[in-house]
Amino acid sequence: MNGLIPNFYSGEFTGELVVDGMNVKDHTTAEMATHVGLVFQNPENQLFSLSIERDVAFGPENLGLSREETRKRVDWALEVTGITDLKDKPPYELSGGQQQRAAIAAVLAMQPKVIILDEPTSFLDPKSALEILQVISDLNRRLEISIILVEHRLDLVSKHANRVIVMDDGKIVLDGTPRDVYGEQARLIGIGLPRVTTLFNLLRKEGLEFYRVPTTVDEAAYELRKMLAR
Amino acid sequence: MIQAEELKYAYPGSPDVLRGINLTINDGEFVAIMGENGAGKTTLVKTFNGLLLPTVGTVKVDGVNTRESSVAKLSKDVGLVFQNPDHQLFSETVKQELAFSLRNFGYGEDTIERRVATILETLDLTRYAESSPFVLSGGERKRVALAAVLVWNPKHIILDEPTIGQDYQQKDRLRNFIVQLNAQGKTVIIITHDVEFVAECKPRIVLLSRGLIVGDGPAEAILSDDQLLARSSMTRPQIGALMHQLGDLGLPEGVIDVYSAERAILQTVRRRK
Amino acid sequence: MSLKVFDGFKFAKLPTSIHMMDPRAKFVMTIGIFSAALLFSNIYALIVIFLVQLPIVYAARTWKKWAASMRAGLFLAVLIFVMNFVFGSTFVFSAAMTLRFVSLMSAFSIFFMTTSPDDLGLALEQARVPYTLSFTFTTAVRLVPTMALDAQTVIDAQRSRGLELDRGNLVKRIRNYIPILIPLIVSAIRRSIELAEALESRGFGASPNRQPLIVLRMKTTDYLVVALTFFMIGVAVYVYLYVPLPTPDIAITMPKIFPWL
After folding, report:
1. How many C-beta atoms surround the C-beta of residue A170 within 10 A?
2. Greatest CA span in chain B, whole angstroms?
3. Is pLDDT above 80 for A225?
4. Model ipTM over 0.95
5. Nearest alpha carbon to residue A56 among A40, A36, A34, A71
6. Where are the domains of chain C?
7. How far apart are CA A190 and CA C109, in angstroms?
8. Residue C6: its pLDDT value, please?
9. Using 50, 70 and 90 to split pLDDT, how confident is the model at A15?
C-alpha cells in the first residue's frame, strides 16, 4: 500500500511503543491506549454514544478513573478541540468536521503522548479539512503531543509537517522534511505532490530559476514574486 | 437530457431538502455537483433515476416524467454509482456481480457474457473475474461497483463521491477514465467536494447550498468566486489560490490547473523580457 | 413490513415527564402493564389496560410515532384475531387476545421511545449487570436506526441496478431479498469491526472498576411511580382472584365449515 506519514515530532518516541503496537489485540492494547491514541478515518464509526460528552468520557471510564478525574479530562478535551458547546448533542447532529473533533477529543481524554490519525480529512469538505488540520497542529505545538498523520493530501499538510515519511511496498523509502522529500523520486512512486510543487518543477524544466521549490501557496507566491522582480 | 423544474423534495416528516431546483443537463455534458454536507446533492441525483419522486415540481429524463416511469426503467438510461461499494456487492464472483444488473434488465446470456468480458477488460479487472468481491481491496471494490453500473452502458452516469478514500494515483486514473467516458458521448455527473480533483478536469459546476442552486457555471468561474466558496465550505484549489495572490503581477484570474498556470507564468515571464 | 416499524421504537429526546423518568422506574411500570395484560383474559379488563396507556402516550407527546408502531403491528394483530377465531374461539375472546397483544406492543413501544439507549445501559450497569453485556445491549439498540438507514441505501443501490422488489411470485420475491441482505450483513460486520477497533484503542476492558461520569439517580417522583405500579398490580391480582368480571352477552363463533374444527 502506498502510504504517507508526515510526522510532527516533538515528543519521545520510544521503541517499546512500536513493538507493543505490533501485538495482536489483547489486554496490551488497552494499556497502550494511554500512550498512543488512534483516530480513524470515518468519524461515524468511532462515536457510538448518544451524547458527545459520554463518548469522550468512555476512555477515562475504561481506565477506571474517579468521577472527578474523568470530569476534568472530559472538560479539558472538549475545550482543547473547541467543542464544549456540543457536549450534549448526539453525534449524528454534528457535521463531519465536528464529529472528527469529537473523535479526537475522545482520544485526547486518555492523555496519550502520541496520537495517530488515519486520513482524518477523507470524509471532510475542504473547509473542515483545513480546520481539523489546524486543531491537530495546535495539539502538537501547544500540548507537545507527537502526531503521526497518515494522509494523501500533501497540499493541506505540508505547512504543518516537519517530517515526511514515504512508504512504498511496505518499506520506508523517503524520510525528511517536506522539501527534501518532494523530489523526482516521490513523483515516480506516485505520491500526490502539492500542485504548486509540481508547477514549479515544470517551470524549472523550462529553464526558470528559483531559490527553492515551494511546498505551500505562500512559499510559491513569494518565490514567483522574487523571480519576476529579477 | 435531464431536466428539473421547480423541483422540491422533502423526506416524510421533515422540512424540504430541495427547495426549488431548476436545472437542465444536456446530453454529453460533464457536470460536478458540489456543495456543503447536507446541501441536498445526493437527494438531487436520486430524483434523476426515480428513487425519489419530487414532492413539488417535475424531473424529466429524455422527455419522460419520472413520475410516469419506474426506477428500473429509468435506470436503463441513468446509471447511479453509490458512494460505498459495500452497499452493493453481494455475489460469489465478480463476474456474477456484473451480470446481476444485465439479468434484471432482461438481456440474453450471450450478450451478458460479452458485456461482462468487455467491462472487465476496460476497468482492468479481468484477473478478478472469478474472485469473490469481498476479498478485494477498497479501491478494487470501488472499481467493481463502477463496472457493475457501466456494464449496461447507460447514457447518463452519476458518480456519488467517487474520490473518497482514493490515493493520488487512483484519483488520477479515475479522472482520466471519467474524461474518457465523457469523450465517448456519455453525460457524466459527479458529486464531490474534492476541489483539487475538479480543478484539473474543469467540468461545469453546479453549486448547491441548503437545497438551492447558488452557482452554475464553468469551473474556472465558480472556483474563483470567494463568496460562493465560503458559503459552501469550499476553498480555492491550490493553483487558483496562488494565481489570486499574484493578481497584481498581471497573471490572469480563473486559472486553476497546473498546465494552464505554467503557460500563463511562462507568458508573463517572456513578456517581461 | 416496511422499515417504518423501527420508527415506533426509536428514541427521540423530548423534555417530557415520561422521558425524564428514571429508566428503572419506567421499566417497572412497563412490566406492570405487561403482567396485567397477561393476567387477564377478560375483554373489559384488557380494554382498561389498553386505555390506561393513552394518557402516558399523551404525556410523552409521541402520538405520531406510537400510532406508526401500532399500524406496523396491525398485520400481526389481525393474524392473532383470525387464528383464534378460525380455530373455534368466540369473537369476544379473539378480540381480547388481540387487545392483549396490542397492549404489550404499545407498552414496550412507549418504553423504548422515551428511554435513551445510553440511559438503558446505565440502568443495567447500575443493576450490576456485567459491563460487556450492558454495553452490547446498548450498542445494539443504538445501531438499529443506523442499520435501518443502511438498509434503505442498499435497497436504493440495488433498485438502481434494475432490481424490482414488488414483482414476481412469492419464491422470486424472497430470492430478490438476497441482494439486500448480504450487503446489509457485510456492512454491519464491517461497521462493527471498525467500531471495535476504535473502542479497543480507547481502552475498552482495561479496568474492571468503571465509574461512569453520569449516574442515574431515582427521584421522588420515580419512587412514587414504582409504588403506584406495585399498588396497581396488587389491585389487578385482587380483581382477578375475587371480582367476577362481566362478559358481553354475545356468543359469536365461527360457523363449522371446516370438518376438522
Report:
1. 7
2. 67
3. yes
4. no
5. A71
6. 17-115+218-254, 128-217
7. 55
8. 56
9. very low
pTM metric for this prediction: 0.81
Q: Which residue type does C63 have?
A: W
Write out the three cell numbers for C21.
423518568
DSSP E strands in B71-191: the ranges are 78-81, 156-160, 187-191
Residue A49 CA, distance from chain mean position: 24
d(CA B86, CA B101): 16
Cell readout for B266 is 511562462
pLDDT reported for residue A182: 84
With respect to residue B265, please indicate whether it lies within any of the assigned structural domains.
Answer: yes
The answer to whether residue B273 is domain-embedded is yes
List, in sequence order, the alpha helices (H) in chain A.
15-21, 27-32, 52-62, 67-80, 96-108, 126-143, 154-157, 178-181, 184-189, 195-205, 217-229
Residue-by-residue DSSP string for A110-132: T--SEEEEESTTTTS-HHHHHHH
Straight-line distance from the first to the last Cα atom of chain A, in angstroms, rounded to the nearest whole number: 44
Flag whether pLDDT at B87 surpasses 80.
Answer: yes
CB A107 within 8 A of CB A37: yes
Contact between residue B189 and residue B14 where contact means Cβ atoms under 8 Å apart: no
- For residue C261, pLDDT over 50 is answered with yes
Contact residues of B toward A, CB < 8 A: 36-38, 164-169, 171, 193, 195-196, 230, 232-235, 237-239, 241-242, 245-246, 249, 258, 261-262, 265-266, 268-269, 272
Between C64, C183, C190, which is nearest B88 by CB?
Answer: C183
Between helix C178-200 and helix C131-159 the angle, nearest 10°, is 140
In this predicted structure, the answer to whether residue A27 has a pLDDT above a threshold of 60 is no
Q: What are phi and psi of A65, to 5 degrees?
A: -70, 160
Task: Identify the pLDDT of residue A56.
Answer: 92
Residue B39 near residue B195 (C-beta atoms within 8 A): no
**To which H or E segment does residue C17 belong?**
helix C17-20
Please judge whether B51 and C150 are an interchain contact, meaning their C-beta atoms are less than 8 angstroms apart.
Answer: no
Locus of grid cell 389496560: C49
Residue B189 and residue B161: Cα distance in Å, rounded? 10
How close is the nearest chain A Cα to the Cα of B235, in Å? Answer: 6
A96, A128 contact by CB (below 8 A): yes
Q: How far is A221 from chain B (nearest CA, A)?
A: 6
Interface of B with C (CB under 8 A): 13, 46, 49, 51, 70-72, 75-76, 79-80, 82, 84, 86-90, 100-101, 104-105, 134, 148-149, 152
- Strands ordered across the beta sheet of B16-25: B16-25, B2-10, B56-61, B64-65
Helix (H) or strand (E) holding B175: helix B168-183
Check CB contact of C154 with chain B, cutoff 8 Å. yes
Residue that has been written with the C-alpha cell 493520488 in this structure? B168
**pLDDT for A2 beyond 70:** no
Distance between CA C164 and CA A228 in Å, rounded?
64
Question: How many CA atoms does the CB half-sphere of A181 hold within 13 Å?
Answer: 27
- Break chain A into its structural domains and give their ranges: 4-177
Domain annotation covers residue B250:
yes
Tell me which of 2.40.30.20, 3.40.980.10, 3.40.50.2300, 3.40.50.300 is the CATH number of domain A4-177: 3.40.50.300
Q: How far does Cα C51 stand from its chain's mean position?
A: 18
Segment B88-99 mean pLDDT: 92
Query: Which domain, by its residues, includes B241?
Result: 236-273
Residue B246 and residue A221 in contact, taking contact as beta carbons nearer than 8 Å: yes
The answer to whether residue B100 is domain-embedded is: no
DSSP symbol at C246: P
Confidence band, pLDDT 50/70/90 cuts, at residue A32: low
